[in-house]
């Protein structure tokens, strides 16, 4: 009788609600909570497929750091003739290592977006990871520079044409990053002023690096017309990057003043402002020197010889101003990281390249003056960059062995959202009138049997 009384007190709707609740409870207790994750997603931290799937563009920062070390060592070999042989050989070792790393990372990236095409959309829509696409052309630019400095003089022949073609490829990719990624930020990404980091500079700096690389490439081109085109395009690249970088630095300073220092996980990014300032100064000096050499040969502009000299002097003056601005940001960066400890991650590679290009700017200013102060200071900076490369490189190898670095934030966010969706109660399909009538009939039949 108790059962009949309980059944009589419940209508068909309450029974359906109870069944739905029981079904939801069963789903919550189910061990399989990844049902909404895509089939291609690899859940785990082992295996080569996991490495490929989680290989982010940030890895190309390794080639940037390795490449700038090779360039600094090559510069040291000319500054210190007594140690030229050892420094030149060591520079070539780093150059070969950088070429190998870049090729491996490029192939892994191609595999990632070929085997798992959906990762491209996830990455390009991620407000942080997508910015690291700018590291690809910057890492490639270091290879172009060393190819111009080492391979072209040694090989001759058509090597200068190959170098020029490589530079044009870098120009196209750099422009795509400089214009495409900021547009992506404006239209797709969800950004907030308080979460802004100096990583916003990465797509912009790519054209500044390509501009500075253009000055190096122009110096080895035998055809004055080709050299002239390279110089003019490089000035345009400099104009697309440096002013926009200064705008972002203004926003970044305001963010630091209002919202204070960034979290310790990304605190190393405070060194990134040295990149556009150091590379911008190095590039504008190199372009001025090449303009002074090429303009009289091509009779570019009225009074070509004087025009080249004016660009040379202006370039040196602008470089000194940017160098002074860089000293301010170097102080902010050192003061920021000295406040507390911070965990190792791929962001540590942000130490090497920005300080490295600031080193090259310092050495170039010292060479043009000439000045022992800038030469000694640049040497100290360069030694610091090499030591930092050893520190960060050893930390990277150690964490690769432990499997801690192959983690893609865009995939982590997707997994987190899918798991949240799995835990939400699923809406039950609406019952038809016929089903309700059948259920009510079963209830009445049960009541009759109980009586």
From TrEMBL:
MF terms (GO), sorted A to Z: sulfite transmembrane transporter activity
Location, primary (coarse class): membrane
UniProt topology in membrane: Multi-pass membrane protein
A cellular component annotation (GO) from this entry: plasma membrane
Keywords on record: Cell membrane, Membrane, Transmembrane, Transmembrane helix, Transport
Localization in the cell: Cell membrane
Region of interest (Disordered), ranges: 418-451
UniProt biased composition (Basic residues): 421-430
Transmembrane residue ranges: 58-80, 86-111, 131-155, 167-186, 198-221, 227-254, 266-289, 309-334, 346-366, 372-392
Origin: domain of life: Eukaryota
Pfam families referenced in this protein's UniProt entry, alphabetically: SLAC1
Similarity annotation: Belongs to the tellurite-resistance/dicarboxylate transporter (TDT) family.
Function: Sulphite efflux pump required for the secretion of sulphite as a reducing agent. In the presence of sulphite, cystine in keratin is directly cleaved to cysteine and S-sulphocysteine, and thereby, reduced proteins become accessible to hydrolysis by a variety of secreted endo- and exoproteases. Excretion of sulphite mediated by an efflux pump also represents a detoxification pathway for dermatophytes during infection of the epidermal stratum corneum, hair and nails, which are rich in cysteine.
Protein name per Swiss-Prot or TrEMBL: Sulfite efflux pump SSU1
Record lineage: Eukaryota, Fungi, Dikarya, Ascomycota, Pezizomycotina
């Amino acid at each position: 009788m108790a059962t009949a009384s309980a059944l009589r007190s419940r209508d068909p709707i309450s029974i359906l609600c109870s069944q739905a609740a029981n079904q939801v409870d069963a789903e919550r207790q189910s061990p399989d909570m990844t049902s909404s994750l895509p089939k291609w997603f690899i859940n785990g931290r082992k295996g080569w497929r996991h490495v490929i799937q989680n290989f982010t563009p940030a890895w190309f920062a390794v080639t940037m750091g390795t490449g700038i070390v090779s360039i600094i060592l090559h510069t040291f070999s000319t500054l210190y003739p007594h140690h030229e042989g050892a420094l030149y050989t060591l520079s070539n070792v780093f150059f070969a290592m950088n070429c190998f790393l870049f090729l491996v990372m490029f192939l892994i990236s191609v595999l990632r977006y070929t085997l798992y095409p959906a990762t491209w959309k996830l990455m390009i829509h991620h407000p942080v990871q997508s910015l690291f696409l700018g590291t690809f052309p910057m890492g490639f630019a270091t290879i172009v520079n060393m190819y111009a400095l080492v391979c072209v003089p040694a090989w001759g022949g058509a090597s200068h044409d190959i170098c020029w073609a490589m530079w044009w490829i870098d120009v196209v990719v750099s422009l795509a990053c400089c214009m495409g990624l900021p547009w992506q930020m404006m239209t797709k990404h969800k950004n907030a002023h308080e979460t802004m980091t100096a990583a916003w500079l990465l797509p912009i700096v790519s054209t500044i690096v390509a501009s500075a690389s253009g000055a190096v490439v122009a110096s080895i081109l035998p055809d004055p017309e080709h050299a002239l085109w390279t110089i003019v395009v490089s000035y345009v690249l400099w104009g697309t990057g440096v002013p926009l970088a200064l705008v972002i630095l203004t926003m970044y300073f305001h963010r630091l003043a209002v919202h204070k220092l960034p979290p310790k996980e990304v605190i190393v990014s405070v060194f990134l402002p040295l990149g556009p300032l150091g590379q911008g100064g190095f590039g504008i000096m190199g372009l001025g020197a090449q303009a002074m050499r090429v303009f009289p040969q091509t009779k570019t502009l009225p009074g070509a010889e004087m025009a080249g000299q004016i660009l040379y002097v202006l370039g040196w003056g602008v470089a000194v101003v940017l160098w002074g601005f860089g000293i301010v940001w170097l102080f902010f960066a050192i003061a920021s990281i000295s406040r507390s400890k911070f965990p190792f991650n791929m962001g540590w590679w942000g130490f090497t390249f920005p300080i490295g290009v600031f080193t090259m700017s310092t050495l170039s200013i010292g060479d043009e003056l000439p000045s022992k102060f800038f030469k000694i200071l640049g040497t100290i900076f360069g030694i610091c960059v090499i030591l930092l490369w050893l520190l960060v490189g050893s930390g990277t190898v150690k964490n690769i062995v432990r499997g801690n670095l192959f983690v893609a934030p865009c995939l982590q966010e997707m997994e987190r959202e899918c798991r949240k969706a799995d835990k939400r109660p699923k809406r039950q399909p609406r019952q038809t009138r016929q089903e309700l009538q059948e259920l009510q009939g079963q209830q009445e039949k049960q009541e009759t049997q109980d009586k």
